[in-house]
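Q&A log
Question type: sequence-to-structure
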Amino acid sequence: MGLTLLRLLLLPIFLWMLLIDAGGPGQPVHRHRFYALGIFAVMAATDKLDGYLARRLNQTSKLGETLDPVADKLLIACSVILLSFEWVAPLGFAIPIWVVGAVYGKDLIVAIGTLMLLWRLHSVNIRPRALGKLSTVLQLGMIMATLVARDLNRIRPALGDWLLPALWWGVTVVAVASCADYVALGVRTYRAARRVEK
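Response status: OK
Response body:
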């Protein structure tokens, strides 16, 4: 719970660090980008640590279970949107709009489906799925790779040029597959509940 609140508090600082360096295409990128990367890494690490400690110490709470995915979604949603703008992302590495659409579309469909199940069944208990977790990991990796894209090309010629498009496609394909998986789970949950009612 405490680590979840820390992530929520760090989010505006992370976004501020991203925007400090935003000066338009071709403008030099300063050290704030690395501060943003460090804050992002801390937020991603505390997400995993928070879940592990909650299970290990048996200290789960309804508020914590609600805030944890909210913190994750806020971090990814804000980062993906900002890094889709040419004036924020490293030159030539802005996240394409179709990737943004896949990320947001998946979350929107899952949220609407969850609300519909809640309305019809008055109770929903859908746990994170393997594809959903993989989708989150790929999105976090894409954001971190975008922040250091220029440096990847310095480490090895064209490393960023092939890694980022690979991540864009990976994020999109897994987001669509994860969305389909959640929709199928929702349909099964609804049908099972209807059979019990009969």
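Response note: The radius of gyration is 19 Å.
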